[in-house]
Amino acid sequence: MDAPAIAHLAHLAKLAPSEEQVNRYATELTSIVGYVGQLASADVQAAHRDAQEQLGAPDGASPDPSFSRDTALAGFPQREGSYLVVPAVLGGEVSAA
Question: Is the pTM of this model over 0.85?
Fold first, then answer.
């Protein structure tokens, strides 16, 4: 991105960067856009195959039908109906999750 494009974006955002900031942002954003372009050309299929091999499940595999929801939740210490009761994250009280 060039300096005039950065200045235009700053104007649209109602910002008033200095000329030095505009030039710095132009350089930084040009680098970022170039890096994103490199990522777009990366072969992600190989990484996807590796991840699938590590997980041991092909695409579209169904969960094990013998492992039901009730089986998965049977060992959970507190439940209220179909909800799990856990300590609140932002406070000390207990609430249903």
Answer: no
CB-based contacts of 79: which residues, under 8 Å, 6+ apart?
Answer: 73, 85
The Cβ of residue 7 has, within 10 Å, a number of other Cβ atoms equal to 19
Over residues 36-78, the pLDDT tens digits come to: 988 888 877 777 777 766 666 566 666 666 777 777 778 888 8
Question: Quick one: DSSP state of residue 84?
Answer: E
Distance, in Å, from the CA atom of 81 to the CA atom of 25, rounded to the nearest integer, reads 54
Helices (DSSP H) in the chain: which residue ranges?
A: 3-12, 19-40, 44-55, 69-73
CA dihedral 7, 8, 12, 13 (to 10 degrees): -30
With CA atoms as reference, report the closest residue to 8 among 26, 20, 24: 26
